[in-house]
Amino acid sequence: MKKLLSASLTLTVALLAAPLVYAQDQGMQEAAGRQLFLHHCTACHSLDSSKNAFGPSLIGVMGRPAGSVPRFAYSKAMEASGLTWTADNLRKWISNNEGLVPGTRMRHVSITDPAEQDYLISFLATLK
Questions:
Q1: Hey, what domains does the chain have and what are their CATH numbers?
Q2: Nearest 5°: CA angle at 84, between 119 and 61?
Q3: Beta carbons of 92 and 81 less than 8 angstroms apart
Q4: Which of 16, 44, 103, 118 could covalently link to 54 via disulfide, CB atoms 3.0 to 4.6 Å apart?
């Protein structure tokens, strides 16, 4: 009986602590994603919703239709892509943008490591 109570208590504590561990992990993912963004993306993309740079602003990118940022001249290929920026489409874009949208004007920057993709997508999802 004592072992059963001990196991039950251990499970209860673990379940109560899980959201805290996940939140801490999520924050770490976003921080790693910010670093990847700074290293790979800031040369062309702005974090200011009122400014486009060489590429469009990425504020609000998650869930946005591709080719829809005002005052940015997209390629015909991007305008005709019909994409919405979901986590899955961002992953495809990050790993092989030219494969996802042949004819895009964005220079190919490939991030093929799945963990780095997760981190970057996690960060992009925070940009509202």
A1: 2-126 (1.10.760.10)
A2: 50
A3: no
A4: 44
How far is it, in rounded angstroms, from Cα 105 to Cα 81?
13
Instruction: Write out the two tokens for 11.
Output: 């499970």
What letter represents residue 113's amino acid? Answer: D
Tokens of 57: 């602003």
Amino acid (1-letter code) at residue 12:
T
Count of CA atoms in the C-beta half-sphere (13 A) of 4: 1
Q: Phi and psi of 84, rounded to 5°? A: -120, 140
What DSSP line would sit under 47-107, residue for residue?
A: S-TT---SS---TT-TTPBTT--TT----HHHHTS--B--HHHHHHHHHHHHHHSTT--SP
What tokens does 86 get? 């979901």
- pLDDT, tens digit, 9 for 90 and up, residues 37-60: 999 999 999 898 889 899 999 999
Evaluated on CA atoms 73, 78, 82, 86, the torsion sign reads negative
| CA–CA distance, 18 with 62 (Å, rounded to integer) | 26
pLDDT tens track for 12-42 = 444 444 444 444 578 888 899 999 999 999 9
